[in-house]
Amino acid sequence: MARILDGKAIAKQVKDELRQRVSQLRETGLVPKLVVVLVGDDAASASYVRSKSRAAQDVGIDAEVIQMPANIAEDELIRALERLNEDNTVHAVLVQLPLPAHLDTDRILMHVHPAKDVDGFHPVNIGRYATGTPLLWPCTTAGILEILERSEIPIAGRTAVIVGRSRIVGWPTAQLLLAHNATVIQCHRQTVNLREYTRQADILVAAAGQPSLIGPDDVKVGATVIDVGINRVGGHLVGDVDFAAVEEKAGAITPVPGGVGPLTVAMLMKNTVHLAEIHQREKEGFR
Amino acid sequence: MARILDGKAIAKQVKDELRQRVSQLRETGLVPKLVVVLVGDDAASASYVRSKSRAAQDVGIDAEVIQMPANIAEDELIRALERLNEDNTVHAVLVQLPLPAHLDTDRILMHVHPAKDVDGFHPVNIGRYATGTPLLWPCTTAGILEILERSEIPIAGRTAVIVGRSRIVGWPTAQLLLAHNATVIQCHRQTVNLREYTRQADILVAAAGQPSLIGPDDVKVGATVIDVGINRVGGHLVGDVDFAAVEEKAGAITPVPGGVGPLTVAMLMKNTVHLAEIHQREKEGFR
Fold this sequence. Notes:
2 copies of one chain form a homodimer.
Chain A: E1 3-4, H1 7-27, E2 33-39, H2 43-59, E3 62-68, H3 74-86, E4 92-95, H4 105-109, H5 123-130, H6 139-150, E5 159-163, H7 170-179, E6 183-187, H8 194-198, E7 203-206, E8 224-227, E9 231-233, E10 236-238, H9 243-247, E11 252-253, H10 260-285
Parallel strand pairs in A: 1-11, 2-3, 2-4, 5-6, 5-7, 7-8, 8-11
Antiparallel strand pairs in A: 9-10
Helix pairs in contact in A: 1-10, 2-10, 6-7, 6-10
């Protein structure tokens, strides 16, 4: 039976540590501030934003939600982002995705200043993944690293197989594991004989958004299985991995829910504090 | 016996096509212009720059070499780059690497405007590899694609194994093959049991800079082997692949010299013309 990697417990650890770090920063006069820009009134997005605000409050981060109408003009949204870029009290800016269809997401994300880009989606930040020296990693990817490191699962020299190459999770996770010196196999929708690759994995990251994609025959005995999928099936949340069956074979596995999910919000907070600290250091450098 | 992928012949094709394209552009009043910035008097760098100038002249591109002293101050070099960024007659800017040790290469490359970054080394351009919609690919990587496409070697759904993850060749080549829907295995110095991976390759790219790294036992029968290595051994140029032995087993193979090398310079010219055309289109868009 696999060891269960308890994301909720790890997220709690991360937030406990952050609460202390933030309280020390506040003593020096630095109040980390995150602004979430929410366009439109999508119920799911609104609910995500609420949970981000709650988490911020929980660790002592100042969080502000800017609500914009669904029909906002692209240039108006960009001007709002530019005002946030210039506002020295704001350390982190997040544009809640998805945006309404009339807005060009790529163009808009270009206007979040790279030094405030808490999601790590600006091309300059993406480009830095390649150099192995990014300012930060996207929240879910950073959460996967947190799980592996706190569970003392080695990465360097191991075979990491990532199924899914989304810009938000799969691709940056492949880059992170490469930066930590895994040999990385990047699989996706056009991969032929997926199982041939997944069975090689010491660390298998399932991020395809497809329930029951990974069964016991797809996994090597003793592998670490990280399930990033969040799929709603018959009113229940399930991942991309057939948990009950794979648990028998894997060495360690994240459940859904309660695995990677809780880390994503915790890492948003950690990234915010990280950006605030960098901002502070740079300000001191100018004194 | 493998088919020999003749890089010299393919580079000639590319340049012949470019010569025609440039001559048509010149008729419309657009003279593609490349500026090469050469710092110091390294003999190898000077020789590379000369061959780039010659190739430019050969296809009708206006090439200028700006020679700077080895002890130039970083800010002075950056100011020179900024002048080139503002010069509307310049379409492509290349900073010949390596730079003298007192200069911060990353910082300097940040100051080549992304729209003139003919090498594709600006973080914004690197970031665009991830979205699968880059402005251009780095010259050697683009040359590998040219070889595969002109030799009608399919990429999508095939297994591509890249040995070496340098920012200049290995890593961007992995991203290019991923963007063309290969399943990509990225290997490097810390990969354990390299052979286990290379033997899976339908397309094997050797870019480690290590003579005789790839022998016949490392290759699947019928594989396409792209040798990017350029190593000087006993006065001869050899690649990373033991050509004579691997040729017996591979389906297709590039020689060294005469494989990827000639494409790198040809693709610098193709990238220059590409940037000039984009510049022209954008200018027309503003009319």
